[in-house]
Please model this.
Amino acid sequence: MKKIFNYSIKTILPILLGVLILFMIYDDFDFSRLLDDFREMDVFWFVLSTFFGVMSHVIRGWRWKLTLAPLGYRPSSATCIHSIFVAYAANLVVPRVGEVSRCVVLEQHEKVPFAPSLGTVVSERLIDTLMVLLITVIAVALQWPVFVTFMRETGVSNPGSDIFSSMSGWAIILLSVVAILFLLVFILKKMNFWKKIRAFIAKFVEGLLSLTKMKNRWLFVLETVGIWFCYFMQFYLCFYCFHFTEELSVAAGLLLFVAGSIAVVVPTPNGAGPWHFAIISIMVIYGVSPTDSEAFALIVHSTQTLLVAVLGIYALVVLQFKKKQLKN
Model:
């Protein structure tokens, strides 16, 4: 019963939270207009955006293989990439479980021990966090007036859109903060305090040291930049898919990208809800109508989430097929 309860907490609550926030944002949205927006989408830019989305995962798989090499493990590039596909798809079901699932995939298919591979994942996340901070500083510096306006108006009445009414805005922010705190408390409760903390630190140090032992450090840096460049291009190119966002600048795209990247910290499937709220809030400041902003956020997030799910299913099928081939 306890396991069922814990599983329900980890799976159902994040989904319910995302649905609740989405309901608060789209309670008066005319969903019939989405079909027209889909018809008007520029397919070329959408396909190009999707290409960068796939490449971000591919490069992440290459980078992971690079971090494992100093530890003496050399899994195939294909398995590393497929494990990344699986990881992101797993995060749609249970937020933050992807880091564990990719290590499990590598252990099952490449015999790479779980603990050291998890250590490299932790070190990767540290580097990615630093990248987010760096991009955030650049975006805020380039768009400081817009950032100040966003901080001032988020959750405060903004003419033309009910989602910015003080009650809805503050409720969404409060729910997001509570969800993050709940996730932290849940993780801490699952730890047997010092024993698991010491084990975690040991894994972290081992994975972190793998970076210092790398022979191809510049390749690691290049791949890290490549990952985040692909993330940004996947999002930014979506502007050209719609007539109402095609005039937005690169600097505007960078600030929106940063806001979305931070919003996905909230434990909902692929950041559903908080991501929409952040994107819509800033787009309205840039002069995009609330209705168009809502449509953009819904279409872009839905298609990108579908891509993650499709890649995850594809990877599971390929991995299972390879496993059967090895047995035969």
Summary: Residues 155-166 have pLDDT under 50 and may be disordered. The radius of gyration is 21 Å.
